[in-house]
Amino acid sequence: MNDFKSNLNKTMFNEIYAYLKKWDLNKVDLLSRKIAEKTYLDKISRLSEGEIYSLIDGITGGLGYRKGDFNVMRMGYCGSLIAWPEAIPEGGKVLEIGTGLGRTCYAAVEWAKPSLFLTLDNSPEILAIALYRNPVKAFSEALKRSIVKIALVDAVKAVNIISEKFDHIIHDGGPNPGKNPRLYSKEFIEKLLQLLKPGGTLSIFAGRNKKWQNKIYFVLKSLGFTIETVSFPETPTLVFHALMK
Fold this sequence. Notes:
single chain; alpha/beta; 46% helix; globular
């Protein structure tokens, strides 16, 4: 039975990549949400509230709240710094690396008016929580908007088959770049640049490690971006807002 489930999921994952290459985002979204729902029914629905929070922290590394203090306002504010909704033109197309609970999606679709918000994440568990056990209802509702398309994919693979261009890219691919260096390599960031329209913008979460902050900053500089640095309140965590002229 487990082998059957594994093969079924593998088939669905392969279909997601195939539809993404064809730019059939409705089918990409449908299949991704189906896997998330199945993951919710099989696993997430059985977890206690404490186990849910532990899983969120384990997968995302934390979303702007502090231990013992689930501060939704702080989460939302941090999400807005990463999303940089002011940069999104009306009717623009947005690509996001790292769906998480949907805090950056919420900021983008609430405070800007994009025509498309395509969000990539490789964790069925976090998508299941985001859609069906989200501690913040507003984040979950944002992910259900018709302009939001979810793709359950490996972003490194996905950016190599996406041929569309975007006005704005949000890179929220992990709280610790050192634990997920593939998403912060020069090759990956350069690929994101290729997916931007002329004059497009990129917001990238750089974490709190000074070494990684410097590395990401100089990669952006070497690719020709103009960069503004913003920081989370009361922490050394940085986000880079980058403009490609």
